[in-house]
Amino acid sequence: MTSAPPLDLDDPAVVADPYPAFARARAVAPVQWHEGLGLWLSFTHAESNAVLRDRRLGRVWSDKAPAERFESFNLIHRNAILEMEPPHHTRLRRLISTAFARGHVERLRPWVEALAGRLVDGLLEESGGGRSVDLLPGMAEQLPVAVIAELLGVPDADRPLLRPWSNAIVKMYEYERTREREDDAERAADEFVTYLRALAAERRRSPGEDLVSHLVSVRDSEGDRLTEDELVTTCILLLNAGHEATVNVTGNGTLALLRNPDQLRRLRADRSLLPAAIEELMRFDSPLQLFERTATADVEIGGITVRQGQKIAALLGAANRDPAVFAEPDTLDVGRAENPHISFGAGVHFCIGAPLARVELQATFGALLDRTSSLELGGEPVRRPEFVIRGLAELPVVLSR
Known about the structure:
This protein has helices at 12-16, 19-28, 45-53, 71-78, 88-100, 104-126, 135-140, 142-152, 162-170, 179-205, 211-217, 228-258, 261-269, 274-284, 316-319, 354-371, and strands at 31-34, 39-42, 57-58, 133-134, 290-295, 299-301, 304-306, 311-315, 374-377, 382-383, 392-394, 396-400. It has 401 residues and is of the alpha+beta class.
């Protein structure tokens, strides 16, 4: 008789709220084999942290087959810093960090704060008279895409192209995919690559102060520079990873505050808690739930041996609710002082865009607090049906000044 999987991703209740299932599995063993997924799953903070940091567990990219069907999708992953290990990862991260070090994040902070304010004002106008409005298209989805577009120097007229491309590509990271979704992902990748090649060519001819211009020109002390494929892939990764996380923290986090009104009132009363609150919202309902690694040698994790070639995944959402690390882990605490969540990853793959994400989230929640006197649910939220990237499809709210 086949034993039940430690995590049933076919159960809609688990996809809707995986945290009780994580707790049940964690009580059985810190690391367990999932036959359906064909990999090990780590349910604790210590083991997930080890999965992310152990250099014998790496990101080992294998092209999706058949190669001719996924040519562009494979290209943007084969050259991605997220799919590399040292020394290739070290070289690429050094070059990207050099471009980022030119003050891009702080340059954008006033612009991001002003944009967040305008978006909240738009929601308030739309919600006048107590009407329900959807926070996601009105705020959560607009701001991070606009910020990445501004960072990269994408012209205003082209910015509506970006989110549909990203949304189609990231659907490939789920475990249950249709052929239609795969075709959509490849088409989006191909269009995105073509667009960014043209944008990079334009920045070579006429450089500006945007990140694409700096990625085109950046060199290290030895004269090394990014290839065009690396540059294109880096820009796509910044959009896909950067904006998806911010969209979903905004949606998940706002819902968490609305369902914990005492914490929303606490945050309104003491705005100095905002930085801690952002970290807590990322911990409480993680936007990325699972991150895979592959063993390049036999590795012992949590009392089991991951054999060379086997995969193991850090369950970030489970790690962030581990009672061995977080006091009352299922309680939202916007003032939580000790908060070593791993929503941004850990080790060499710690998110390079984390500072920008924090600027965006502080601006978003800051504007919601500053410009509203009341923020309430305007209906039943709708959660996206995917597990790996956890977010909402609809979040109706009612706002007033």
